[in-house]
Amino acid sequence: MTTTTLAVLVPLLPFLGAVAGLLLGRTAPGFVRPLAVLPPLGALALAVTVAVRQGSGQAVSAATELTPTGSVPIELALYIDGFAALVAVLVGLVATCVQIYSTGYLRDDPRYPSYAALVSLFTSAMLLVVYSGDLMVLLVGWEIMGICSYFLVGHYWETPEARAASIKAFLVTKLGDVPFLIGLFALATDAGSFRITKILGTVASGGLDHPTLIALLLLAGVAGKSAQFPLHTWLPDAMAGPTPVSALIHAATMVAAGVYFVARLLPVFAASAAALVVLAVMAAVTMTGSALAALAQDDIKRVLAYSTIGQLGYMTGALAVGDRGAAVFHLISHGAFKALLFLGAGVIIHAAGTNSLAAMSRMRNLRARVPDAFWTMTVALLALAAIPPFSGFFSKEAVLGAAEHVATGHTEGVPGAAGWIVLVSGLVTALLTAAYAMRLWLLTFRGHGAEAPDHGRQPLSMNAVLWVLAVPSVVLGLGIGPLPDWFDGHDLTPTLTTSVLATGVALVGAITTYGAWRHTSAMAVHFPIGVVAAYPDADGGMVEAEAIASHAPAYGDVASAHDPADPGRLLLGPLHRHAAVGFHLDAVYAALFVRPVQAGAALVRFLDREVVDTYVRGAATLPRWLGEAVRRAQTGNVQTYVSALLAGTVVLTVAVLLVATAGA
Q: What is any Pfam family matched here (predicted)?
């Protein structure tokens, strides 16, 4: 079987699995779990085969025209280079792990069949984006992911938080998609084609007429889909969905699509120095702001959500300095350890019965209840903090090394300002990342107080995938030698300067947080949490839904109370209350957009009811009055009719006489 045929089957298998799952979910429920797991597993095997065959060789390119569309044709095209091959393997791996994990995590959920089908469709859409060689076909996968995210984030639709989060995610990403679509049409108009290879050829020959405008329009869509400032606010709220969905969105789909799109079309953005500087500023604000916000969050999933936003900032920062190899390397590395962090968090939430770090910090021996999650999340947090020799160290230092080369003038064609912006913000974020990673680990696994609740061991399907994802989190960086074969021969070895500097600041951040925790723990007064023992067994997904909706169902005032052992408050000081609410960006959007739109809608409703409806009702009232008058005249009395006839005759006679007299 040819590589092209195998590549076509990679996104097709999950799509067929989604269709079959929807059709058989009610009539044959026994097939739901196999149909959920086997298609992404088959797609993973085929993606690995395609990657091995492609290797460092010539990119796989094939196309067939779908239908004549005029001057700019739309083609069903494949374009698979080393980047696409590796990202497809990541998507297949994470999707398979998520589906296996979900068989245990949502085993009692009555909506599991539709959930599993949507996850498969989500996976298929992302694989279509990765392998597509035509921008219009890519856009199809891009939009399907947005629709799937709406349903998956709103899976627990019984809770108002899930409903609001799904609507917010859909609207914010669609807000970015409007200029994105305009940018795609402008790009295709300049290049005369939607084919990526032809567009890149046009860029190489200097054929783009408006590179800055096109790049900025496309960046709006990327900011929405990849949760970059200022369109990042939907991602923390999307934690209202099931934890496996969070893992899928954050690690391999949706948010990774924007970064991958820029990496695929990097020459388009590099054609405009202004666009690269804008991208660098966007990355800097995103990574530093989200790291500060993560240090102040109490919800374990919101900490990880803001962490994802910051790591995506590293990826866009690498693209801003023109190094797509470093960006995709960090995308792959981050995908492995972030999926592990979210799935591990799901195990902890089921064991603790809450998302609240404040509540977990008052639980003794929680790590003994979840040993698999403890050890694997420790590995993932070390990778997140970029501590050698874990994978995050190599990929993050590749980003900082690329920024250093640009800042010091060793890379041509990229503004030096972009390099300095990314380098400085990247080092600051490395300090903050290690700080919030250490804070999360301490509050989760080093709590003091009452004994942690015992809900029994988690299902094997949940614990097994944690160890599967721990492997690339440990060894991916150690395999840096053969990786350049898939990265256009680009050397990804970290530079000595940035390695020492970034590791140093990361250690400073971790040690400072540990010291702050020791200081606050010594003064903390831990509240009793005996109510935990009465909390229902965490067997079904609805336990998490209740914990997400409010910490109160499990812990009452204890979970919402100020945690004196939280080192984040000490480290951030007066900035803490602002960082905890995302620096009030949602409030700003509410004032600038939400309330004016609601006021406009209220005005339209008033005009419709009080003005338009008044005319409509008036038009019907006059005929009704006339009809009422005529109806009253129809009494059925012959004498009345004769009297009326005579009266009418007299009136007409008098009228005729008056007219005749006036004429004489």
A: Proton_antipo_M
Beta-strand relationship, 60-67 and 363-364: unpaired
Position 484 scores a pLDDT of 59
Q: Per mean pLDDT, which range of 164-178, 212-226, 648-662 is the poorest?
A: 648-662
Q: How far apart are CA 517 and CA 523, in angstroms?
A: 10
The separation between CA 342 and the C-alpha centre of its own chain, rounded to angstroms, equals 13
How far apart (Å, rounded) are the C-alpha atoms in residues 544 and 102?
A: 13
559 alpha carbon, distance to own chain's centre: 27
CB 42 within 8 A of CB 88: no
The pTM of this model reads 0.86
Is 271 in contact with 208 (CB distance < 8 Å)? yes
Question: Which tokens is 493 given?
Answer: 């070895």
373's tokens: 């999650």
Residue of 548 and 41 predicted with greater confidence: 41
Sole residue written with tokens 């010291």: 515
Would you kindly state where each structural domain of the chain is located, as residue ranges?
A: 273-576, 581-633, 636-664
Q: Are 203 and 187 in contact (CB under 8 A)?
A: no
Which of 139, 136, 131, 124 has the alpha carbon at shortest distance from 54?
A: 131
Locus of tokens 């019907």: 620
